[in-house]
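Lab meeting prep.
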Amino acid sequence: MVSVLAVSDETIESLWSPQVKSLGVDLILGAGDLPFDYLEYLTDALNAPCVFVPGNHDADLTGYSAGRAGWTRAGLPTTWPGPVGAVNVDRRIVSAAGLRIAGLGGSIRYNGGPNQWTQRQQRRRSRTLTRTFAWHRNVRKDSRPLDILLTHSPPLGVGDDTDPAHIGFDCLDEVTRRLAPQLLLHGHIHPHGATPEDLTLHGAAVINTVGYTLLEIEPGGQRTEFEAPRIVRRRHGT
């Protein structure tokens, strides 16, 4: 089992302190809208890899590339504005701590800020994930299942809200069906003191991790027979 600390949207005082070291997790997952130095602190304090997607209140991280000479954007040297040591999995599939993770960041477009997309734009962005997954399956003959789909916003109609800024993305239905993850982990929807209901979509557990959630996940579990990710502890609010 892989021990995972999932965080998003709301900083937790007890995590941004030395007592976080008692958690001893294998992996940190960030679902967006957190200070980047918060993610950096967790990565350093827990000595664990961090994989994240940007939220709608985060800086624009599109177009950055890391090479031997450092970071570039549009072919020019630059400084990476994201969290040092963390991996941005937006529109990518990566492996970390024995888990296979795909990511899709951002929210529905509502005021023209960074990391906001229309339904059509996000559908187009999501095709990068489905094409990459199919390429690994068909060309590289990589049959490993996906463990986690990490998003900032939830799927449309599955844990989202009705106000214009918190409507979910319709493309996540198709992405979840085709990638068949064990778990879809998202933020963006603040529960305001309540414990959000854990939902399912095409066999995947859909979990809102605003604040933080501690999980234990069996790598490579199949949807028809896997033991659902176990929620060890969760907390919402500061």
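Slide two material, second protein:
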Amino acid sequence: MGPQLWPAFWVTIQLTFYSAIGSLVWGTILAAMRVSPVPVMRAFAGVYVNVVRNTPLTLVVLFCAIGLYQNLGLTFAPTIKSNNFWLAVLAFVLYTSTFVCETLRSGFNTVPLGQAEAARSLGMPFTQVFGIIVLPQAIRAVIGPMGSVLIALTKNTTVASVIGVAEAAALMKTEIETFSDQLFVIFGVIAVGFMIITLTEGAVFGYLAKRLAVKR
């Protein structure tokens, strides 16, 4: 029986999907904190983004697996296999959200300052100015760069193999050991699989960037 690699891409897709949702939520919160009028929030978000963004992703994954699970007992699922999957998702969220945050911050600069000032002059609090005026326009302005962040996240999911998550890269290693005579076939399938996923992501975000671009 030959190597069976395609099922592993389902794990890769799941890792990407859940991590992308979590990163978007946490990254948006971080972005709001970085422009918040509260100094403590700005300081926390600034330190968090600069520290985590400059930390190797492998260390973040190992921190979640060893520090949070083995030492602190943080558990998301009853089985080790499922728990490692969600620990990997947590690590990707903690890491990728920093890039989402900085991407959104660049989008804030595209929103005319006068709009925010007009909203504040009407008595709108920061949360409403941010959520109703600034954030929707910023998101539309950075859809293309967000696609690049998602593509990078998809490729980063290979790091999950260090804690035993059976995504594509981990299964590739196992299949190479079992079917060493089909090395080039296995590498080819993995390469094509990642190309299909990332090119699809790029095409979707490219279309959305043109479709939803803010008209000035």
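Talking points for slide two:
Residues 6-34 form the longest helix (29 residues).
The two ends are 59 Å apart (CA to CA).
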